Amino acid sequence: MASHGIEIRGLYKIFGPNGKAHVEAVKAGISKTELNERHGHVLGLKDINIAMPGGCITVVMGLSGSGKSTLIRHINRLIEPTVGEVIYDGRDICRMSQSDLREFRRHKTAMVFQKFALLPHRTVMENTVYGLDIQGVPRSESRKKGQRWIERVGLSGFENHYPNQLSGGMQQRVGLARALTNDADILLMDEAYSALDPLIRVDMQTVLLDLQAELKKTVVFITHDLDEALRLGDKIAILRDGEVIQQGSGQEIVLRPADPYIASFVKEVNRGRVIQVQTVMTPAAGIAGTFALPSGTTLETAAKQMTAAGVSVAQVLDGDGKPIGQIDLTSLISAMVTPVGHEDTAQIAAE
Amino acid sequence: MATCSILPDILCSFPAVSDSYIRLARKTIDDGFRAQVRSHAHLIDAVVQPLQAFLNFLEKLFVNSPWIVVLAVMLAIVYLASRSKAITLGTAFGMVLIGVVGLWEDTMVTLAIVTVATLIAIIIGMPIGILMARSDRVQAAINPVLDVMQTLPSFVYLIPVVVIFGIGKVPGLIAVVIYAVPPMIRLTNLGIRLVDRDVLEAADAFGSSPGQKLWNVQMPLALPTIMAGINQTIMMSLAMVVVASMVGVGGLGKNTLQAINNQFFTFGFLNGFALVAIAIIFDRASQAFGKRLQKHTEVVHG
Question: Where would I find the ABC transporter domain in this sequence (chain A) (predicted)?
Fold first, then answer.
């Protein structure tokens, strides 16, 4: 199944009895506080344009109140947009009829929730096949599929437990199994891991990355945690006060924060895990090193491999195995601990 | 009074409408009401007949079956519902005591009418409760009606019931249902409205139709509250059975009424205690059943 991308174009959401009437004012630049105080409407989202590539994990990051949960709910239209388009596979979700929308939700999307939102009166198995129940798939068939995903998320043996009997981490595994059993192209994860403790969160991130490597779904992941965003996101969009203030790859955001707000976030990030070798290498291809690293290797991995091999200089190879530059340990380590300057970031722009 | 002497008359004694007006209004409304009833007699009959048949059938079944069969069936139902030996034994003890003091037959009559009244209250109350939960407007329209039903003294609404349906078992049954249905409606509505919004959102996100949402999510999760409503409905119909004996319902209620009229102290209390025994049996069994349906809430992850 080839995954389709999702494209959000010119999306506005203004909460209140007559949101449409205030779109023009918002477009003209009225502020969030002014809209609230003078007109009693709350600006939820302002001019959102994001292309979410198919088969990739797009992370929408922002602090609470930034509109990220509102945004993800527009993709399956749990919230009606004020104006704008959400295009999937050539169709505008915002214009679908109620029955089309229901079919779209049943077959194309699955969602994982921050508070798990499992059905407390159903067992793990019954929760897992919930989406298939709704589609009208007979239990004999759905149980087989459910069983597969229950095993895949590591819950074998718990099929007949009730959600109440499980820990938070296990409950969210049920949430994930429920979403995956739906076999939908789009996977919406609304702060899916925010309620979990840090170790389990990392564990669940690994589960998601492993699954994604195999399934290649179009994942939209909402989080307030930049580390999580950088670990999971092929693409990251940062939201503040209902506006996208920067979008790009994790590396781009860490190296070139669009404003002081993002810069203050990025300061605390473990750069070694985000920045890749080709970004800090010397692009001279002349010197032939004995030790080679593929482009796309993170600095941390590179440092580990180079010290293990006992070399201080390594060659960087591109996708076809051709050398494109070299990197030495000193520059590698200095890039890990200090913000990279403009001359380095210029290379990314050239890429 | 002293203050009255300094006030004008109109402020002192309330200026009521002349008696003749009230008399006229009363006569018009009463006559109109009776005429309406008379002209719709066939319609009223159509309502009464099936209820009468059902009630008679159940009453005969309860009264004519050998007491040992009735008791065995009752104990089986109580045990299956509650899965509790204590409640089953208590039921046996209570029912035997009722039989020993010679109230078995009257108790069966009362049991029959309470059973029918509860069933009707559930059949009427649950859909209305669901409708109320779905629409704020329906809720706003029905709530005041329920308020009136619950605060209007039960003797007062016996009057229109008697005018429309006459004296007898079915009018009594209808009065009991009117009295007992509000908690069923209110608690169904409340139960559905209290269902966690997050879970409902999940149901929506997976593409549930409104019907699927109702039966897969809302009703199961509202069940504890709905069970509390059924419990209340049973309790209220047991209470109302005594009052309804004034319009011709038999059983323990009629005995109580006789005891009041004749100052039969002991007889009255025996009947009262028999009602209490049935109430406790119904209450414990239905609560235990409701709890058993919620077994998923009991085992909590430590």
Answer: 30-266
